[in-house]
Amino acid sequence: MYFTDAHEELRMHIRRFLEKEVQPHLEEWEEKTFPDAIFERLGELGFLGLRYPAEYGGQGGDYFSAVVLSEEMARAGSGGLGMAVAVQTEMATPPVFKFGTEEQKRRWLAPAIQGKQIASIAITEPDAGSDVAGISTVARRLGDEFIVNGRKTFITNGARCHWALVVTKSERDRGHAGYNLLVIEKGTPGFEVTRTLKKLGMHSSDTAELLFDDCHVPVTNLIGEEGEGFKNLMWELQGERMITAAGAIAGAQRVFEYTMDYARNRQAFGQPIANFQVIKHRLVDMGTKIASAQAFVYQTAKLWDQGEYPVRQISQAKLMATQVACEVADDAIQILGGHGYMREFPVERAWRDARLARIGAGTDEILKEIIAKSYGL
Ligand SMILES: Cc1cc2nc3c(=O)[nH]c(=O)nc-3n(C[C@H](O)[C@H](O)[C@H](O)COP(=O)(O)OP(=O)(O)OC[C@H]3O[C@@H](n4cnc5c(N)ncnc54)[C@H](O)[C@@H]3O)c2cc1C
């Protein structure tokens, strides 16, 4: 219903690449994060611009080509790499494409599609995450420049990025009209990576704290109209949630298949554990939840692909898919028993990686607030 032969061909192309060039290194990358060169390789293969137009080096595909990439990254088993790539293709670059000028697209979008530049998006601050309007990174307009001061935290690709799309506010309170999205390039005096953070999962990705200390940023780095940053960020967050949902459910499917296989082969009391009704039913519940969440994710992705702005559905899809992914990973650990808790079995990493998706791109609670509002509650 959603995928054409071309999508399936793309899927196989991505899968072969991941099996050959990525999966053999995943264990090592979990220890010390993946090399930056992987972006160039992904760019060379065209995977970083699947749905961007050819004039910027993209492949001109539809939204389902992005879904295919996200699903295959999840299937490969590294949440960290999948997240880093999604930040590049579905979070940091979309606003440049949608709201940027021609010159900005040539300068930041095209090299990101080629994998020659790595991008990050910097919204969260030490004192403001869910409450985006509560950020305190200030961009003060001074002639042809903005002077930026503030801190961002938990920034994926933050340590390795060439530029960050930074959410800022004006020095005077202008309500939602006071926010701006600025591209700030590494090497800009005052832009510093203050530390990289250790975390529960997503180990192959880097997560950094950034400092902007009297950073002079040319007005030409403003993405979109001045004062429209908040509105444009809300649009960006829809795409972020949509792709998170797609990746989460594909990750759950992988864990489910692995667990089913394990249960068929693991013997206890003289028979495969899959013969025990309690295990069988647990597997059935896992598969059923995945199937229903996946159908809703695809249905919602179709609306997004058609240019609709289905905020309620996207919030519901992300909420449901990420909760299902966590439940499935937890059930998988239970079915694998002690093996499930061991690093050498893939569900342990899946369990740790999956947890983030219920926090990043809008926590469960924030999504419920959005959904409630959409019902007029
Ligand atoms: C590994 C990792 C990578 C990340 N990558 C990025 C990135 O690349 N760029 C970026 O900008 N950010 C990134 N984030 C940050 C992420 O988006 C935030 O952690 C998330 O938005 C939540 O913000 P917070 O952590 O400040 O939690 P808080 O906002 O402090 O929330 C704490 C708790 O309070 C609840 N809460 C808050 N407000 C309400 C409310 N109104 N009603 C009910 N409950 C509420 C929340 O749901 C949560 O349970 C990343 C985070 C992690 C852990």
Outline of the structure:
The protein is of the alpha+beta class.
Bound molecules: flavin-adenine dinucleotide
How much beta, percentage-wise? 15-25%
Series of H and E elements? HHHHHHEEEEEEEEHEEHHHH
Count of discrete alpha- or pi-helical segments spanning 4 or more residues: 11
Unreliable runs: none
CATH class of the largest domain: Mainly Alpha
Detail the topology: elements first, then pairings:
Blueprint: H1 5-22, H2 26-32, H3 37-44, H4 63-76, H5 79-99, H6 102-114, E1 119-122, E2 138-142, E3 145-156, E4 163-169, E5 179-185, E6 191-196, E7 207-218, E8 222-223, H7 229-265, E9 267-268, E10 271-272, H8 277-305, H9 311-336, H10 346-356, H11 364-374
Parallel strand pairs: 1-4
Antiparallel strand pairs: 2-3, 3-7, 4-5, 5-8, 6-7, 9-10
Helix pairs in contact: 1-4, 4-5, 4-7, 5-6, 5-7, 7-8, 7-9, 7-10, 8-9, 9-10, 9-11
Bound molecules: flavin-adenine dinucleotide.
List the keywords:
single chain; 377 residues; alpha+beta; Butyryl-Coa Dehydrogenase, subunit A, domain 1; Butyryl-CoA Dehydrogenase, subunit A, domain 2; Butyryl-CoA Dehydrogenase, subunit A, domain 3; four-stranded antiparallel beta sheet; 10 strands; binds flavin-adenine dinucleotide
